[in-house]
Specification:
Oligomer: single chain
Strand content: under 5%
Helix content: over 70%
Distance between the termini: 14 Å
Number of helices: 11
Radius of gyration: 24 Å
Strand order of the largest sheet: 1-2
Length: 262
């Protein structure tokens, strides 16, 4: 098979996987759309519980009351069908991986997904209630706190993404150490810079209040320390040099087998 034919076959396979992913999300969206209002009410619960008496959420555009809950339903469908999405991605990339790469990537995908969902859960159950408590507490006398539902959704999505990516820090640290980009000692020496950077990131991606900044910066730094601990344990059990020798020998054997077959 020529290189062009191989490239076209990969494109066809990629298109088929993308169609299956979109189809799975669409199937998951259909039942979620029937409960779109309830899903939005659940998403808005951290704010609704902290609003003072007389405070409420509003819709400032004509179509907002319909489209915003539907966006939430689409988000819920994406999360529900995430295992199917990951399987389709895995099925596409797995044929091009070596056995040791498969053993590394498959757990990595599931662990990173689990950590991302943990970040979203932490934002929903811990960070958002404290942020809204802080904001509503400082509302001036005579000011009715009323938040647009569309802007609230944008705010919550930003917080979810920020905390989800923050909880991926151990994965990034372990990968950098595992592939030899940085050493464990370099990671330890960078602690002071990571601590400062954590608060800078917290100031950028969270509202301008000290509570939300601490809620993002402190877990980010603690997860960085957890990543160093895990990377140190992995390096002791599986030295990088041994992995490189194993990888080189495996590739050499495959090249030799290909030359013999020719």
């Amino acid at each position: 098979m020529s290189t062009e034919e191989t490239f076209i076959s990969h494109l066809v396979e990629l298109r088929a996987r993308l169609v299956r992913i979109c189809g799975g999300i669409l199937i998951g969206f259909l039942p979620c759309s029937f409960y779109a209002r309830e899903l939005y009410s659940l998403l808005a619960l951290p704010l609704l519980e902290k609003l003072p008496q007389g405070g409420q959420m509003i819709a400032t555009e004509v179509v907002t009351p319909f489209f915003v809950p539907m966006k939430v339903a689409m988000m819920a469908a994406f999360v529900i069908t995430l295992p199917h999405t990951l399987y389709q991605i895995w099925a596409f990339v797995a044929p091009g991986l070596y056995s040791h790469e498969k053993r590394l990537i498959l757990p990595l995908v599931f662990v990173s997904t689990f950590l991302f969902l943990c970040g979203i859960a932490f934002a929903y159950f811990a960070a958002l209630p404290l942020v809204f408590e802080f904001i509503t507490h400082f509302a001036p006398e005579g000011v009715a706190v009323m938040t647009d539902i569309g802007k609230y959704l944008d705010f919550v999505l930003t917080m979810f993404v920020a905390f989800g990516i923050t909880f991926e820090v151990p994965i990034f640290v372990v990968l950098l150490a595992h592939i030899g980009v940085v050493s464990i000692e370099q990671l330890k020496n960078a602690r002071r810079y990571v601590l400062v950077g954590a608060f800078v990131i917290g100031a950028i991606f969270t509202p301008p209040d000290i509570v939300s900044q601490f809620m993002l910066a402190v877990p980010l730094y603690l997860l960085y320390e957890a990543g160093i601990l895990v990377a140190n344990l992995i390096s002791r059990s599986t030295p990088t040099s041994r992995l490189i020798r194993s990888d080189g020998g495996h590739r050499a054997r495959k090249a030799g087998d290909a030359g013999t077959s020719e």
